[in-house]
Structure formats: C-alpha cells, structure tokens
Design goal:
This protein is α+β, with helices and mostly antiparallel strands and 600 residues long. 33% of the residues lie in helices and 17% in strands. The protein has a single domain, classed as Gamma-glutamyltranspeptidase, small (S) subunit (Glutamine Phosphoribosylpyrophosphate, subunit 1, domain 1), CATH 3.60.20. It is built from 19 helices and 21 strands. A seven-stranded antiparallel sheet has the order 1-20-19-15-14-7-6. A seven-stranded antiparallel sheet has the order 5-4-3-9-8-2-21, with helices on one face. The protein is globular.
Length: 600
C-alpha cells in the first residue's frame, strides 16, 4: 500500500517536490478555467503552530482574525473579522457581495455544522437567459459583465447566522479592523495590483464605478500609497451597527437595487435581482457529507457543492486503486490520482445541482459498491479519456444530460482553530476576478449565475445545474474537516474554480497517506485533469533523470500539458499536542498562531 511508504522516502519515491525556485509571473492571457492572479515567484511558506491557529489568503486578514482570538473570540468571530477584511484587501476573490460555505466544528456540543451561504438566482430568471437569438450560448466572458449574472449575495447572511450560533464577541467588535482599513487605507499587495490588471483584460468598460475606484486616472493604484475604499468602510460600518436587516432590507439593499436599475437602464437588460429577492434570502443549514478514508473520516460540503461529492469519490477510488498497488511505484500514485479525478468529474458534471430542483443521488454516488464498480473499470496501465458518468442508486428516474465544465475562480479559503477547540473551514467567492466588476456601496458584486449551465437541456434531457428561479448554482467550493477517533485533526480547503477538489485531493493524500507537514503539503507539486488530458503543475520536477514521471505517464497514454495552478490552500493539522498551519505559497497568505500561556 502507498500508505506504507516511510515518510523519509516520500520525496524520493513518490516524487513530491517543494516549489523552491519559481519564475516571476508573466500573465499573457486570460485562462477561463482558472482566471486568477497566480504568484509564481519564490516565496517563503508562512507557517505557525500553537493552541489555536488561523490561516487566510492575506496577512491583514490573518492579523485581524488573530486579534479577535486574543480577545477571547471564537473561531466564528475570527471568520467574521477575516472575511470583512478580505472584502477590503482581497476584493478580487470574495466579499459581502458574494457567497460562502462554512464547515464548523462546535467543540462544546461535539457537532459538525454546514452552513450554506451560496448565492441564489433571482425569482425573475429564465432557463435560457444565456441563450442568444441564434440559439447559441452567450460567451462566458460577456456573461460575466452582465448584471443578469449577479446572484443574491449570501456571505453577509452566513456571517450573521454563524455569529448568532457560535460567536462570543459582540457582532460589531469583529468589524473594527475592516472599517479602519477601508477608511485609512492599506498598501496594495502585488496580487491585488495584478488582479486589477487581469480585470482590465476581462473587461471593465461597463463599470464606471470599478474604473473610478480601482483605476484612478486610468492607472493602477500606486503601490507605495495607501489605497482607500471609504464607501465600503461606510457599508461595513452600517452592517456592524444594524446587522443583517440593513443589508437585506435596509438602505444597503435599496442602494444595491437602485444601482442595478441604473445599469439595467443603461444596458437595456431585463432580469436582475430585486428587493424581494434580497428580503427572501436565507442561509440553509445542511447535513455535512462524510466518508471513511483509511483510518480517517473526511467531512465536506454537500450539494449544491459538487466539489464535496467529487472529493469523497476521488478519495474512495484512489484508496481502492492504491490498495491494489503491490509494487508501490511512484508512477502508480500519479496515474491513479489522475484517473480518480477524471471519473469523479464525470459524475459531478452529470448528477449534481441544487437539490431544490432535482433530487441528487448522494447516497448512491458515495456508496461503497458504486465506487468499487467505478474503480474496477480503471486500468492500471492505460489512461482513460472522457469517461461517462456512472449509474448510482437513486438515479433511475433521473434522465439527465451532462453539462460542460464551468469557468471562474474568484475565491478564497481560510481555516481557524480557537482555544476552545472549535474549528472553522470556510470558502468564499465572487466567482471570477472582481465578480461582474460592478460595485454597490463599495462592494464587488458577484457573477455566480454564470456557474449555472448556460444550456438547460441536451436533446430534451435536462441538465441538473440548469438555471431556475431561486436556485443555487453548482459550486466547486469544498471546505473540509477531517476526524480521527471522533475528534478533528485536520482542516483545509482551497480556491481554484472547477479544480478545487483536485487541489484538495492532492493535499489530503499528501497529508494523510504520506504524512507531509502542512508546510510540505502546500508546497508539493500537483496534478489535475481535463476530460481528455492530464495537467502537470509547470514548476514541478516531472522529468528528472532518476524518475521521469512525464515520460512514464505518457507511456500509459496520458496526454500531458503543463499549467500554473491558482490554488490557495489553507491547512491546519493537529500534531503532537498542538495545531500546525501553513498558507499556500502560490498566493500571499499568512499563518498565525496564539500560543498557550505558560503556567508559573
């Protein structure tokens, strides 16, 4: 078994390589499958360990979360503090105008909770809203600019509900840092500036508000001058004082709808969210989905997350294939991982959508016998191209069609463990870089409705992720908490659009099977897949003389391509009496810890 590899041999036999020498990035074009700024230059991995740990995608957010923990706040208080700061300093990825998923371990009650703050489609939407008069689907890039792509934001409602259940500090106390940063400003980070440039290439001519704030006088903000978003500071201040009603039924809601009406008048578009849509939004408490992986129990988010189901299928398939590995060769690891990813993707594209529309056969998709059946069709010596979805139990009455894979990747992930033993794994998104690039109240407005399938059916067969009123689009976000002997020992997640479960699977196998530390696991080279080819991280050492993985995968029939990956893994792991965290070096994240007080 692969798990039997000794930790000291991992880097030699299995081929994990730290990203120690990376070139300065040159972004030449927009990649729709992962359109986010990627930091490929050499960065020291940020790590921390202690009684409680926070890892976010930005140092300012990590600082705010840690200060909250120092004041006695819970992991949920830290999530509120971090997310509101990220709305100011990392608006390209998340914010109050987007949506979120939260996995939360309540140590006192010994319970795991999943809160769904995913955006919803307006009650006004129509199934074929992305179909042009000629019958063809609108181009994804054009759709991202439209106010018709804006879903009812869910992040603010999720933060409020999470705080209502798990917060220890007063609600308003978690907003001080974000309001201060909005008013007084912050030094723009390199990724912040690169993301603005990327947004220009995606298109910003439709948004005077974006140009005014993020490209003053037609130029990028000065990297040495404080960047301010006073309008967002005002929005945050209102929410901190008046709570959720201000966002969904008060002045913030009214301004949002008024701003959309102005856009509608200018662009002559018909469908967008309304005051009623905002007032009717609710956070949904969902049942986490969990599955045993070797001696661990891996728990993640259910539909409308397709990423969570895919992740558990990947691990189940990989475990079966690796258990049959008698020779323990490194090539088997990469081949079996690629095949596991590809087969899970086929099911994800076919069976999963928001369960308010069509029933999702979750039990069937995660059933042991079903996964054994799927794994048995995978060949140990030959790559599979475009595998078909399977036929899980509970799917007989569902005559569905598969959808094309979605684009987008404006997402962030953070993890927090507090001194009380609570654990938060939280993923948040505005869909693509700066969402629609439209703003209201200083907030970036999402384009999450482009996560729906642009076509509603194929030859009369419905697509599970078709657009419908009040429906939540399929998501790849997959916050994870892992248990051993009924206690949490690992929490992680990542941004990255469709590739999120691929990144997390790489990280989980590295952490659990190969016993890599958080620092090692966020730095390892990774593999991903498309239906017809396998993708290798371009900075990994895949062709060294001793172990030419590139050539060996090619010999198995894999069509190989290199790509930079826009992962942003945040990982915390329990090890020898304390928590250890690390932030992905591909972004600008930071890990911080609160040390246990020494007794005299």
């Amino acid at each position: 078994m692969l798990i039997s590899l000794i930790r000291g041999q991992v880097f030699k036999q299995v081929g994990f390589v730290l990203l120690l020498s990376l070139p300065i990035p040159i972004i030449a074009e927009v990649n729709p499958s992962a359109p986010e700024s990627i930091d490929e230059k050499k960065i020291k991995v940020s790590t921390a360990s202690g009684q409680s740990v926070v890892v976010t995608a930005n140092p300012l957010a990590s600082n705010a979360a840690l200060e909250t923990l120092k004041k006695g706040g819970s992991a949920m208080d830290a999530v509120v503090a971090a997310q509101t700061v990220l709305a100011v300093v990392e608006p390209q990825s998340s914010g109050l105008g987007g949506g979120s998923f939260l996995m939360y371990w309540d140590e006192a009650k010994k319970s795991l909770i999943a809160l769904d703050g995913r955006e919803t489609a307006s009650a006004q939407v129509e199934e074929d809203m992305w179909i042009k008069p000629d019958g063809k689907a609108m181009a994804w890039l054009k759709a991202t600019k439209s106010q018709s792509a804006i879903g009812v934001p869910g992040t603010t409602a999720l933060l409020w509900e999470g705080h209502r259940q798990f917060g220890r500090l007063p609600w308003k106390d978690n907003f001080h840092t974000s309001i201060d940063l909005g008013k007084k400003g912050f030094i723009p980070s390199p990724r912040f500036l690169r993301s603005i440039s990327l947004a220009q290439r995606l298109g910003i001519s439709h948004s005077p508000a974006f140009k005014s704030l993020y490209l003053p006088n037609g130029s990028l903000p000065n990297k040495k001058i404080l960047f301010r978003n006073k309008e967002l500071a005002s929005t945050l201040s209102r929410i901190s004082k008046k709570g959720i009603n201000e966002f969904y039924r008060g002045d913030i809601a009214n301004k949002l709808i008024d701003d959309l009406k102005l856009l509608k008048k200018k662009n002559k578009e018909i469908k967008s969210i309304t005051n009623e849509d905002l007032a009717n939004y609710t956070v949904i408490k969902r049942e986490p989905i969990c599955r045993k992986y070797r001696s661990w129990r891996v728990c993640t988010f259910p539909p409308p997350s397709g990423g969570g189901v895919a992740l558990l299928q990947i691990l189940g398939t990989y475990e079966l294939l690796s258990n049959n590995n008698s020779d323990q060769k490194m090539i088997k690891h990469w081949h079996h991982l690629a095949e596991s990813l590809r087969f899970a993707d086929a099911d994800r594209s076919h069976w999963i959508g928001d369960p308010i529309d069509l029933p999702v056969p979750i039990k069937g998709l995660l059933d042991d016998n079903y996964i054994k059946n799927r794994a048995s069709t995978i060949k140990g010596n030959k790559a599979t191209f475009s595998p078909l979805p399977g036929n899980p139990k509970g799917s007989k009455l569902l005559d569905l069609a598969s959808q094309p894979r979605t684009a987008g990747g404006g997402t962030t992930h953070l993890v927090v463990v507090d001194k009380y033993g609570n654990v938060a794994s939280y993923t948040s998104s505005v869909e693509t870089v700066f969402g629609t690039r439209n703003l209201s109240g200083g907030m970036i407005l999402n384009n999450q409705l482009t996560d729906f399938s642009f076509i509603s059916n194929v030859k009369g067969k419905p697509i599970a992720n078709r657009i419908k009123p009040n429906k939540r689009p399929l998501s790849s976000m997959s916050p994870v908490i892992v248990f051993k002997d009924n206690r949490p020992v690992l929490a992680l997640g990542s941004p990255g659009g469709w590739l999120i479960p691929h990144y997390i699977a790489n990280a989980l196998i590295g952490t659990l099977d190969f016993e890599l530390s958080p620092k090692e696991v966020v730095s390892q080279k990774m593999l991903s897949v498309q239906p017809n080819y396998t993708v290798l991280e371009k900075n990994g050492d895949w062709s060294n003389e001793d172990n030419n993985i590139y050539q060996r995968l090619s010999n198995l029939g894999h069509v190989l391509k290199y790509s930079a990956f826009s992962s942003g893994l945040a990982v915390v792991k329990w090890h020898k009496g304390s928590w250890h965290g690390a932030a992905d070096p591909r972004r600008e994240g930071k890990a911080l810890s609160l040390q246990r007080k020494k007794t005299p």
